[in-house]
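Subject: Putative methyl-accepting chemotaxis sensory transducer with Pas/Pac sensor

B.,
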Amino acid sequence: MKIAKTYALYSTIILSCTLILMTSVWFSKKTQEQRQIAHEQSSVFERYKAVLNLEKTPLRQMSLNYSRWDEMATFVNTQDLSWSKDNLEPLLPTFGLHYIFIFDASKKLVYRHKSNDVQTINFDLSSFDASKSSFKEFYHYEDGAFIQFFLAPIHTSADLKRTGEPKGFLVLGRLFDDAFLKSMGHVSLGTASLFSASDHPTLEEHFEIPLHSLQDDVIGYLDFYYTSSMLLFMAEMQNFLLFAGFIIVLGGIVLFHSLTYKIIFTPIRYISMALKSHNLNYIAALSRQEHELGEIAHLICEHEKQSHLLEHYKEAIDENTIVSKTDAKGIITYANTQFMAISGYTEMELLGKPHNIVRHPDNPQNFFKEMWETLKEGNTWKGVVKNRRKDGSAYYVKSVIMPLFDEQGAIHEYIAIRYDVSELFEQVEHLRKEKLTELPSRKFLFEAIERTQAPHLAILNICGFRDINTLHGQAFGDLYLRHLTLKIKQLMPKTWQFFHLQSDEFALFCDAPLLDQAFNNECQHILAILSHEGLFIQQTYYPLTLRFGIANGVGYLYNRAEIAMKEARESRKNFVVYDDNKGFEERLQKDIQWNETIMSALKENRFTIFLQEIVPLHVKKNARKKYEVLIRLIDTDGRIISPFHFIDLSKRMHLYDQLTRFVIQEGLRAALELHCDISINITKEDIMNQETTAFLMDMLHQYPTLQGHITLELVESEGIEDSTEVQTFLQQIRTYGCLLAIDDFGAGYSNFEYLLRLNVDFIKIDGSLIKNLDTDANAYATVKTITHFAKNLGILVVAEFVHKKEILEKVKELDIDFAQGFYLHEPSPKTKIKSHYVSH
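Prediction pasted inline below.
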């Protein structure tokens, strides 16, 4: 009600001020009326004089022009009537003239002509002084009529400045009567009348123009009268409108007050009551009305509903998630029951303590430092944290931590919402227990070869391993490999190293001082024992057949060992040592030739890129396309060579970094040209190469429009998170908007830990799991677990090696996000894809 009383007071004040203002305006208007009438009379009279002057300008000019004619000067002497009939008589109807007089130099009348509707007048120039004026306008009054004359001395064209004696005089005349004045009245709001000097009346409200004779005497007046009826009418109308406006304003204010009280103040009162009591019944009817207050009431209803909903959400979050708040210094100010339940601490033990009370020592040293740097910059931090309970046991949470700001924009506190993902980590741990061999990969073998001057290498291959998988299943095959790994580790000398190259292939490496024959003999001894004893798995004996391919000494060691293994397969021997004298050198030369092919292709720009589409399965069809960038070599005959033939060799020959930079450069150019997203493979070796990383950063800096459209696929990601250089690199590419993917995910179940540590955007499930998805139940179960794991962490999943329809159907069935493979899109050159874009 306070608003209503205040409004009534303001209305009274406004009404009073309005009355005073309108009265002042009325008195001011009355004073201005008289001034306006006088000013308007003067303005109209000045305009009338200007029109009169403008109207006779053509006659003045015409008289001056005719008086300059040489023919006119001649006519004064000859009075050639045929000439006057052609040149003078037409002037009367053309210019509205009634009289033409021509006098000779002695002012004797030599020619006279008049229109038929006027009387003849006698006209004499004897009193005109030609030396005083070259042109004269005057009036003549005779028999109650005024005649206006225009007189111009006649000169020849040679006397342009009219300095000589005139040859005669040209006089043009017209009646200056009421008919003429009436025609002029159309351009004025007033009227005009002619009076002789003797008959001129004396009036107050009139304006006059004196009419002069040839001798400059005043012989009459043109009186101009301005009628002020329009101004008076407008003044009366203003008075009426002013009074009517007053009545309307008064009535409007009263009506407005009564209406607003009902339409505005009553609803406002209900809105106030609803807000105070949180009872929406007060404004339920109002919220359905289609006006501003109805909209406000509707918004209040929605706000109340949302508040109730948010309260339910808060209860649901408190019930199902782990929530805590801290002040700006990280001191816990709130912890929900879920936090207390999972940590084992009571509320009293948590409040007022720093959040590191639950920190687990296994987290990297810089983990929380980087987290706090992100938060203090005002950004949200997301990640998986390993925490420690009060009893010392560990649990894992997927956390989202947000800074909350005060009115000045400063960080006031932090809120953290966490989900318990310990079960997922238990799955990871379970999968880690099924890890195949715990052996370093091929990459580490190459590094070991590079470091030694006296290497010995044996490549081991399990004969018929595919049949073992087919007969007993993939799970048993994995178990078979683990038993073999343990067996070989027991048999090999402690100074040797053992590597897992691929599913059924291993390597024994020795860089200790040892004769070639001694290494060969030791390998034969290991082979003999393995072949004789076989493997005992789950108290069952399984025979074991192996092949060894051996090479010794520096120089293409791995290539020579591979050649020996190839010979062992082809000759069905189980032990072959590389020997240049046995024709192996020819095969080695092929490797060397490939090296030269790579070198020449680099020099001659014969590398190119192919693109294979990564097809989205759950987004709009017209979404921006995404491609993986694949390198290809064009030989001297124009044939396209797959990287299968040269990638491993390029790594051994230290050419791989050049190929990586080529793929980066061409891939980014393709993204710009095709307006697409691209995915580029990158290895730890690339990341550790400063030239490669500097080149990538420079390219990303050059093309800022590609932010969010470049994905880097980490290949051979084992151990990648333990490197400070790698972590720094990953942070840097995030600043350029790059997305991160793990390639060949699921191969050997060796990279779940990296998935959780690296905070990736995509995982690409290894093709070895996808290619048999429709027939291998174990592969299906594994892919399902991986997909479920990724979905829980908000990571998108890509299925590689989709080579047929049945595989695609299984991929869709598992709710995988993207698919890639020959069934969907074969790798194609950029030019072909670009032409397809243009045609569509």
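Residues 429-435 have pLDDT under 50 and may be disordered.

T.
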